[in-house]
Amino acid sequence: MQVPRPPVARVEPVTETFFGQSVTDPYRWMENPKDKDWEPFMRGQDAHARATLAAIPGRDALAQRISSLSAGTAIAYGVQRAGQGSNERLFYQVRPAGADGFQLAVRAGLGAPERILIDPTAMKDAQGRHVSLDWWVPSPDGRHVVYGLSAAGSEDSVLHVMEVDSLRVLPERVAGTQYAGPSWLPDSSGFFYARVADPAARGSVEYYKRSPVWLHRLGTDAKDDVLQVVHGRDPALPLTETEFPSIQCSPVSTWAVLALYGGVRRENPLFVAPLADVVAGRAKWRPVCAIADEVTGFAFDATDLYLLTTRGTPNGRVLRLPLDGGTYATATPVVAEGPRVIEGLALARDGLYLLELDGGYHALRKLGRDDRVAEVPLPFDGAISGLHAHPAADGCALDGTGWLLPFTTFMHDPARGRTEPAGLAPASPLDLSGYVALRSHATARDGTRVPLSIVMKKGLPRNGRNPTLVSAYGAYQISSNPYFSPRVLALLERGGIFATAHVRGGGEYGKRWWKGGQKLTKPNTWRDLIDCCAHLVRERWASARTITIQGGSAGGVAVGRALTERPDLFAGVISNVGISNALRAEFSQNGPPNIDEFGTVKDADGFAGLLAMDALAHVKDGARYPAVLLTVGMTDPRVEAWHGGKMAARLQAATRSGRPVLLRVDFDAGHGLGSTRRQIDAERADEFAFVLWCAGRRNVA
What we know:
By secondary structure, this protein is of the alpha+beta class. The protein has a domain at about 15-70 and about 440-585 and about 620-695: Rossmann fold (3-Layer(aba) Sandwich). It is built from 11 helices and 39 strands. Strands 32-33-35-34-36-37-38-39 form an 8-stranded mixed sheet, with helices on both faces. A hairpin with a 6-residue loop joins strand 8 (about 145-150) and strand 9 (about 160-165). The chain is globular and about 70 Å long. The chain starts with 13 loop residues before the first strand and ends in a 7-residue tail after the last helix. The relative contact order is 0.12. The model has no long low-confidence stretch (mean pLDDT about 95).
């Protein structure tokens, strides 16, 4: 087929000097979305990429197989309980087999029939773009649900409220609610929510600054909502302009908790006040803990507040204090630090459930009302992608998955001591008996043991010729936990290997693992990836001619710098909506909230760290780079598309290997969170065809 040539980007160098060191950006103009060359460049690059990928023999057959795999498995997850006794309702998201997206469903108990409340796949916005359900929270009585919808994967949520019994959508709307974090009043008459200060400022570095919290009453016009908290309003609250305030209620408590979230910061200050005072507009927020106390999670009921803290205990411990007068300094330790990382809390009537992590794999314990801690046995070995409990009901719901375990909602019944599938979706029809998942380790150059997960067909030969896709992330203390993707079976069926390098910067071993790959220690992230790939070569699972590495979002740092540091080790590199130009990230819409994670060019250490992790700055003219596939979404609110645009232009101008540099652009998608099943199918088909082609397969069918 005819493959159009990629457009050549114009070069307009911008040179800046930081702490005595000059850095030149040849494509700064791409940061202006109104530049006359921007959209034509992106459309031309996309046309070249898609035609090149479509020309790979067998790509269409591979795409059909991926589509049949993804369509054949129904998924349900995210159970939230509402109502009491005979009026209890279970809300959850479901994607039926063959559906293109997730819907919001409700049941009047596990044995009751399912009702679909919201089906975004049946919606289009005014421009004909697809719509996604971003978030949702039912009222305590289960009669209403507040939810956010956005178009084209933009995550630019508009708040809606639905009356559950009648399916009537109330007239109130609120724009700019991407991070709404709604919390209902115990009597279900209204809710607190956050929004951006000015929805019209989208695209600006000011967009996420000075976020306010409001109180909305059901049935009233949103313009009459009552402002609760905002930067500069209350001198007693140390709220910076880049922090996100959030007010949380409990259906069993007369208290409210105010958290000041620092964007991606894990440690956040907390304040408490009587809920009646908050609603009346006379709250005097009493401080409970400061940033230095390293509180990373909390839960509360009628009388007590539980704090998860890493202060002096990197794996975490739990403290308890009375809501009516306690502080961090006077709190009582109730769960000591252990060998596993305490990652999250969920409070039920029968006790506090503790989500714990060890190398990416989850376990569950419970602090009972008798203050005894006991293990909660799990019927699977893998990860818990969601944990929910209700403070007025016993037990919990959890979403379990693993490399070879399809996503399954389990319900834990403490009275029976059993954790069993909830039956919210039909069991997967896939036969997974022919595959195996291995838990391995690679030794990094500094002696650190880095977890390495490997999934493949049983009996696959170790001959160094297997097409191998190695994924890595390594940021924000987010773990690359085991998860099931039916689409990956299309790669495994063709003799491929799917591996995950659990590199430093992630959260597999908690705070120490995160801090081991952050800011000035960030090189450990991409060097762990390099060393994991070298391990796979030594063990003869793969070779430098068959390995493709892949990272998305912040994982773009890992794969981008692995590419520029060891281009000889890889046959291919995939960066999905990845950060390539870290030096410029803080000047984008999502930049200010992420300074805590990556640093700022405004101080010497911050500049040094960002320069080290900036892949664009390390591309060398004349180098022999492997094949590269960059993917971006034009409505991405998290990593702007110019990261991929700049990196593609620079690599295309620099490489002398003759291998392609492709920029795949989706004009109806963002960061991937709101993409439809078919969009994801098409992207995975291109990626897996790319992996197999890079490994030397002449036909990928």
